[in-house]
């Protein structure tokens, strides 16, 4: 099944169109590419296992710790294993082995690399040692090689984001420049904690741009370390970031923490046949949509997304109402007003039946609704249920473009108690005397839209 165009976040499209987006590519992008030895390009654990085998061939026995080291790879302690390999293998030996793998003449950019570089990102960051992204850019530019940078270049080019040309930033170094290669934990500590230029570049990039992660599982320890190191900037970051990930790779809790702690929202694709073909579909549609204005974008979407026959005649919009039990009277009256005006209302009292699993039923209601109306009062801001519903609506809105969040704020509420997630959203401020008059105006706006 091709990727559903409707699931491409509008904020991501806007960022790319306004030249405020960067792609960050991991090993998953290159793993389908086959080498001369008929093996696919390795991810990081596979690469470390190959280097362990190299060391073993060189008669290094790891002081009898080989089984423990291989277990460390399996358990994801990759930086420590990489550091051990860097200490037992000579740097020239590692560099030659990496060149033999990643400069293999059989390696060619595939259709995914080629469509990626067509999207108007201002630049691409990658942890990959291969040169496939650079190759795809070179094909696109009729043989003109893009600007390729590493951490060693930041003294000369302190802010690649201001370049007039597209750039590729090699987070782990350039395979054609062995002295720039980063492998072990000491390398990462030096670059992340001691290089002011590198840290400044990344903080600027994540603060003013939207980053799309492609080919990452978010279990890569180098990326985890990077994001943890940058965690201090998230509270002042106005941009959202997105992770394209196979459906089921992250559970709901992991997706929630990623969104709330790091402002990284997931875009999930299906991988039923194991080929990850929907990654190409997603990037293809992203390229098409960022080259069209709003009118033609809607026409384009309609060509690739058709409602099931059972839904084609359904025109009613729907709204989920989140509230504290202490404000139930207001919530019920608002629900009745919405229903009278043809809006389908989702409310726990109406929709959670005996025997239903409450959490999953509420989650389904939020995800299926067009609008999420939350009544903010001194009662609801102290409700754990309301807090959880706001978090889910916030995450779902950024991942699926709906539900649109509408905070209704009682004027008696102290403003500095408004949930942080809702601070950037326009509120509807009401009091006891005007609430239903203002709700009626709101309904007219919803129906008009």
Automatic annotation (TrEMBL):
It holds the Pfam family TIR_2. It comes from the Bacteria. GO terms for biological process: signal transduction. Gene3D superfamilies: Toll/interleukin-1 receptor homology (TIR) domain (3.40.50.10140). Residues 315-449 form the TIR domain. This is TIR domain-containing protein. It comes from Arsenicibacter rosenii.
């Amino acid at each position: 099944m091709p990727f559903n165009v409707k699931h491409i976040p509008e904020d991501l499209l806007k960022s790319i169109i306004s030249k405020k987006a960067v792609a960050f590519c991991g090993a998953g992008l290159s793993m389908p590419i086959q080498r001369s030895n008929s093996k696919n390009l390795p991810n990081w654990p596979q690469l470390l296992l190959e280097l362990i085998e190299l060391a073993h061939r060189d008669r290094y026995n790891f002081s009898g710790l080989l089984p423990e080291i291989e277990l460390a790879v399996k358990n994801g302690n990759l930086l420590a294993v990489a550091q051990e390999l860097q200490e037992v293998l000579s740097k020239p030996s590692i560099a030659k082995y990496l060149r033999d793998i990643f400069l293999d003449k059989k390696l060619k950019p595939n259709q995914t690399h080629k469509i990626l570089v067509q999207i108007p990102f201002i630049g691409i960051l990658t942890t990959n040692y291969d040169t496939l992204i650079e190759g795809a850019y070179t094909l696109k530019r009729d043989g003109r090689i893009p600007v390729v940078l590493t951490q060693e270049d930041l003294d000369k080019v302190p802010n690649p984001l201001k370049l007039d040309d597209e750039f590729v930033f090699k987070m782990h170094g350039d395979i054609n420049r062995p002295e720039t290669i980063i492998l072990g934990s000491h390398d990462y500590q030096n670059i992340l904690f001691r290089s002011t230029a590198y840290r400044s570049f990344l903080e600027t990039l994540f603060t003013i741009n939207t980053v799309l992660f492609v080919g990452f599982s978010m279990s890569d320890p180098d990326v985890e370390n990077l994001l943890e190191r940058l965690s201090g900037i998230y509270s002042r970051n106005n941009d959202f970031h997105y992770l394209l990930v196979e459906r089921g790779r992250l559970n709901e809790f992991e997706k929630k923490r990623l969104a709330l702690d790091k402002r990284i929202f997931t875009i999930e694709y299906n991988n039923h046949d194991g080929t990850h073909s929907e990654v190409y579909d997603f990037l293809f549609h992203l390229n098409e949509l960022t080259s069209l204005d709003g009118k033609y974008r809607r026409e384009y979407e309609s060509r690739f997304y058709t409602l099931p026959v059972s839904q084609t005649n359904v025109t009613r919009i729907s709204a989920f109402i989140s509230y504290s039990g202490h404000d139930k009277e207001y919530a019920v009256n608002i629900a009745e007003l919405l229903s009278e005006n043809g809006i389908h209302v989702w409310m726990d009292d109406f929709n959670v039946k005996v025997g239903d699993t409450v959490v999953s039923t509420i989650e389904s209601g939020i995800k299926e609704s067009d609008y999420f109306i939350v009544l903010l009062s001194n009662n609801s801001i102290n409700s754990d249920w309301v807090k959880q519903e706001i978090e889910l609506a916030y995450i779902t809105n950024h991942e699926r473009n709906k539900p649109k969040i509408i905070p209704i704020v009682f004027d008696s509420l102290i403003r500095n108690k408004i949930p942080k997630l809702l601070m950037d959203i326009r509120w509807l401020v009401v009091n006891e005397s005007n609430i239903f008059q203002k709700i009626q105006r709101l309904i007219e706006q919803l129906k008009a839209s």
